[in-house]
Specification:
By secondary structure, the chain is α/β, with parallel strands linked by helices. It is 44% helix and 20% strand. A 5-stranded mixed β-sheet has the order 6-5-4-7-10, sandwiched between helices. The chain has a 5-stranded mixed β-sheet with strand order 13-12-11-14-15, sandwiched between helices. Strands 1-3-2 form a 3-stranded antiparallel β-sheet.
Length: 417
């Protein structure tokens, strides 16, 4: 009774196997794909034919076989066939990026949202407006591309298949179906809408970016970032581990002081009350700049003062480093993470955090140096969340190429000679 479904699942997995091999090793010949995937040559030929019909793969020329046989016909991906939209919500703006299957950016835009505290509908309306502009630009540039997915990266735990934003504390939301609100703003958008946690996306992107630079990650990696707010993620064997309620890695609301400042989450002494943008700007004496110009210009001014050697700004970062060190001790004790990646302005301002961070970690390191996590710093800056959202959508398509419909081959551009 289950044979048809099982057969479809096997075919889908095999299509993914071939597509992933071509993604990693192409252009290459069918024979190489068969050897690399372990599939028989006839099966590879049939799978490749389907991938060509879907516009994901094309013939990419030929090379001599090295003997008396016919030249080997090479296969390669068609990057312009698929476009992914990724949106990131910060405290003051919505950022949108459209990229093709290999990550080439086709459109980028940012817009202030001025969303009232506690009103997700106003923010969804701005997301819808910016996404419509991005979609129109993509349709003009690549009219035959398949728009695969819109991923909206939001601060706060995102719960399971429902993708409810459980609590966006910096925005004044409780449980919110942001996906439904955004979809209602985009009734003509012909692709799925997904909501993802912004810190998890940034964690994934930084993990892969550092690996590309030669970093060998342990099996368990924790990520801590500060920008819109303070968040984090937990990666196990390169995959995001979100826990039972989407809360794994939500380090911003880890209490590090029993009698610390009150936090909007209802607790006291959370890490966010020490290293989040508002407390950090306050400690640096930049409240007035934040009130009159906004948080993002105020953070830019803090960066300028740090680089100019301003003692108040420097002291603020030193204190933030001390608080961050306390949180790292807690996270490493609970997760046994072999590496902690710091992202957002925690990476940008590493030189000013270290004087507070390193003494906080020194005692534990002296006691058990071989059991302490490696501290690394992200390299993507403000790009991390959008890049991670793109990568998540791309991985979903690599895992299931049948998401892309068949298309006449004439609509797929021929390779450039």
């Amino acid at each position: 009774m289950n044979a048809p479904a099982d057969s479809a699942d096997v075919r889908r997995r095999n299509l993914a196997l071939v597509l992933r091999y071509l993604d990693a090793h192409g252009p290459c010949a069918r024979t190489e794909v068969a050897v690399g995937t372990g599939l028989v040559h006839a099966t590879v030929t049939a799978l490749v034919a389907e991938l060509i019909d879907r516009g994901l793969v094309r013939e990419a020329g030929s090379v001599p076989s090295g003997g008396r046989g016919r030249p080997r016909r090479l296969l390669g991906l068609v990057p312009e066939r698929v476009v992914v939209l990724a949106a990131q919500v910060s405290l003051e703006s919505v950022h949108v990026m459209a990229a093709d299957f290999q990550g080439k950016v086709l459109h980028r835009e940012s817009a202030p949202h001025h969303a009232p505290y506690g009103d997700p509908r106003a923010l969804a309306a701005v997301i819808g407006c910016v996404v419509r502009t991005a979609e129109a630009a993509v349709r003009d540039a690549t009219p035959h591309a398949h728009l695969a997915q819109l991923a909206v990266a939001m601060a706060g735990p995102v719960v399971g298949p429902s993708q409810l934003v459980a609590a966006a504390i910096d925005f004044g939301w409780r449980s919110t179906d942001l996906r439904a609100l955004v979809a209602a703003e985009l009734p003509l958008l012909d692709c799925p809408v997904e909501v993802v946690n912004d810190a998890n996306m940034a964690a994934l992107a930084e993990y892969h970016a550092l690996a590309a630079e030669g970093v060998r990650h342990p099996d368990t990696v924790a990520y801590i970032k500060a920008d819109t707010g303070v968040g984090g993620g937990l990666l196990v064997n390169g995959r995001v581990h979100s826990g039972s309620h989407g809360m794994a890695g939500e380090i911003g609301h880890l209490p590090i002081a029993l009698d610390g400042p009150e936090c909007r989450c209802g607790a006291r002494g959370c890490l966010a009350t020490y290293i989040g943008p508002e407390p950090l700007l306050h400690a640096a004496g930049l409240d007035r700049v934040a009130e009159t110009q906004g948080g993002e210009p105020a953070l830019a001014e803090l960066d300028r003062r740090l680089r100019a050697g301003d003692p108040v700004a420097t002291a603020a970062l030193g204190a933030a480093g001390d608080a961050l060190g306390a949180a790292i001790l807690g996270v490493s004790g609970v997760t046994d993470a072999g590496e902690i990646i710091l992202g957002g302005y925690l990476a940008t301002w590493a030189p000013w955090l270290r004087p507070g961070l390193e003494p906080r970690l020194a005692g534990r390191h002296t006691l058990a140096p071989d059991m302490q996590p490696l501290i690394t710093f992200g390299v993507l800056g403000g790009e991390a969340t959008l890049r991670g959202a793109f990568q998540t959508c791309r991985d979903a398509l690599l895992d299931d190429p049948t998401r892309v419909p068949a298309t006449p081959r004439a609509t797929v551009a021929a390779p450039t000679p």
